Known about the structure:
elongated, TOPRIM_OLD, about 600 residues, AAA family ATPase, 3 domains, AAA_GajA/Old/RecF-like, alpha/beta, 6-stranded mixed β-sheet
Amino acid sequence: MKFTxxxxxxxxxxxxxxxNIDNKNVIxxxxxxxxxxxxxxxxxxxxxxxxxxxxxxxxxxxxxxxKNISITxxxxxxxxxxxxxxxxxxxxxxxxxTSPPLEEDLFYIQLKSEFNKKEEYGNIxxxxxxxxxxxxxxxxxxNVSALDKAFKVFYVNPLVNLDRLFNKNKKLFFEQSEGxxxxxDIIDTIKGLTCNVNDEIGxxxxxxxFQEEITKEYKTLRRENVSVxxxxxxxxxxxxxxxxxxxxxxxxxxRYYPTSGDGRRKMLSxxxxxxxxxxxxxxxxxxxxxxxxxISLHRSMQISLSKKLFxxxxxxYFFLSTHSPEMLYEMNNTRLIRVHSPEKINxxxxxxxxxxxxxxxxxxxxxxxxxxxxxxxxxLVEGPSELTLFEKVLSMVKPDYxxxxxxxxxxxxxxxxxYTNALKELNIHYIVKTDNDLKRxxxxxxxxxxxxxxxxxxxxxxxxxxxEFIDIPEGMPDKEEKIFIKEEVQRKKEExxxxxxxxxxxxxxxxxxxxxxxxxxxxxxxxxxxxKEVFGENPVKQxxxxxxxxxxxxxxxxxxxxxxxxxxxxxxxxxxxxxxSTKQEGEDNVI
Length: 591
């Protein structure tokens, strides 16, 4: 069973949105943009307790009660032979599922609500079926429908109430039918002890005095042959009524600690949800709707919860809204859903996977991408030296760039495509700054791959360029040959930059900025005097030899004027685009 699409019409701040979804989904966006309403659309579909209340005028987009609310989810059931959950759903569907003559075996569940202006109430009617144009009403008895027999939704709000959650589910936790005969002797013993406890309580002077006085007061108000007595709730409601969870350390046999502390209470709440899913609703398809779980959780707890969500079989189906990069450390095969609003509420999504060669650095990739997801514009750079330089320049020239939606993402040299694919599909404007690298072909003297240019071309899905050649004279001493090759490679880079000026211009139109040679040479053309002051003669070589450490030394010495010179230089226009948003929000990085 696989969720594939969600359509929302005229519901709250969603006028009309159709979004691709999956079984594991992360929803993100600015505050007050509609993430909670996105989750509530799913709650109304799958939660009978919420549906029972129907809709009020404010649930209709802009209070437009003349148009119906419609929420539809599409499910792919083509894995019937492999998925137990698909079999559960098909069993609940009965005659509503008729496989259409299509390659995909799709099934639709739909909520519709027409507003009754006289009663100021929007009644909810549920439909389902395989033929979207001819859905049938879902059969129900009372407040329970056939749909609710197949699905169970757990909505986990940011401030989940542990006490309420525990008390609400006590009957499920401690069903008397479970182990009743085996525990009967223990139950009888507890009842006897409870009676003894109440007898002893009744002998207390303060209790006896209170009972006598309150009985007297009662009889002045009503003449009745009764008395008021105080009893433990345990004796009246049963011993489970007073049971609450405590924490006991493994090496401490006598001391119990209350489940205080927001982080501990939240993690215990998640444990309860897990227990219910595994032990009490195992016959149903469990959907988790989780809203901003990072609240009250320390960073390490967030990472731990991330691992549970993305790797634990309990969470086969979930929709998670978050503002925390740590919650996404372990994501893989996950649908990223961005809720944004250029003019009206809109959604875009991207199915995020960590490619097989990169699984060993999954957390590193996720950590970087997750931080960028919450920005409007992202500048991708190769490594830490570029990051160090650009952060210093912007701290002097545009110190509020992050508050205004900018973010610099270090990609680790080779992962540009991994990030740009995601950012493009999520409608997050990306900018690239990279070196004009050449790479010598192994065992082929003088032949070089244009890996800088080709890296950029791959980002816009254009054909890569053929290798180039450098004539290297025979018989040169090794030391002289190395110097010769280094100088010729640099000359070749500038030659290629000029030769392919049309490509360079196309790349710029797509916010991809290639250095004429490399970052160090770009920098030297702007702040030659400062680099010589810091590094002496041949500062470019100095900076290249120990790039990060020397870059740190350099940026410490940069003053505001030098930072402004770098910012305004054409070779660093990427910084202007990052901070000035020269492209309108939502414009794709395409030719």
